[in-house]
């Protein structure tokens, strides 16, 4: 009797243990299949768009991205409002070799130095030293040295970005940061809190950020979920301002510089 009570209890515990998993499966969002890019696939300096292409939310070859493709890909992949894709597309298209005739861009086009691609990237080399398109371990190690707690804060990320700026100024004889690039750079930082978190906390789990940058893959297998509310472009402005203040750039022209991305 005791034995059967015990085994009943065990099987009860077992089903309780299994149940949350079942619930979780029902509640969780699963991305489309991730496939590593091949040698002829176009990839560029943007970890966000590279990731969308690796999951097939953008063409897997990274080429011929039209406004309609971009709107759908950003919404389905990261839950970003279509208005934001419209705004960013006006910038992306400028990197197409046949601009202003172009109606699409390739991901590698984004890395043409001095159009959108800029120095001081968090995970890419300045173009003076090496190809600014691929993920760069050395640069990323510098950035990561500022992430000293399991949750990355606005202050830490702002300090990392200012650190990359100082390094570039000190070592790159061709260092340059246009007003557009300055604003873009802050907007790129804002993505940490809006896309890799849900935009409400001002923090983001360091392991999601590491996984995302290194693999250009959505970190669902380590617990990340696509945000449930649709991201508005205005959120980027809000986080960019917080970051600029944390970075101590308020007295600069940064408020004027705040543009897109
Ligand atoms: C049409 C939409 C987009 C365009 C045209 C675009 C373009 C770019 C470009 C040109 C860069 C390189 C700048 C540089 O660091 O030199 C970049 C970097 C970046 N992008 Fe995007 N992007 C787009 C969407 C996104 C999305 C949806 C995300 C987030 C999920 C994102 C996150 C980032 C981040 C974090 C960086 C900085 C990488 C680094 O500093 O190493 N972007 N993007
Ligand atoms: C990549 O392109 C080259 C040159 O066109 C071709 O020879 C090669 O087979 C392609 N590789 C793949 C994996 O498609
Ligand atoms: C990574 O970036 C550093 C610093 O800019 C550069 O010296 C190095 O050549 C880059 N590595 C690769 C593999 O491109
Ligand atoms: Mg760059």
TrEMBL record:
Keywords: Heme, Iron, Metal-binding, Oxidoreductase, Peroxidase, Signal. Residues 30-247 form the Heme haloperoxidase family profile domain. Residues 1-18 form the signal peptide. InterPro entries: Chloroperoxidase (IPR000028), Chloroperoxidase-like_sf (IPR036851). It comes from the Eukaryota. The keyword Translocase does not apply. Gene3D superfamilies: Chloroperoxidase-like. Its cofactor is heme b. Coiled coil: none annotated. SUPFAM superfamilies: Cloroperoxidase (SSF47571). The keyword ATP-binding does not apply. Belongs to the chloroperoxidase family. This is Cloroperoxidase. It comes from Aspergillus lucknowensis. The lineage of its organism: Eukaryota, Fungi, Dikarya, Ascomycota, Pezizomycotina.
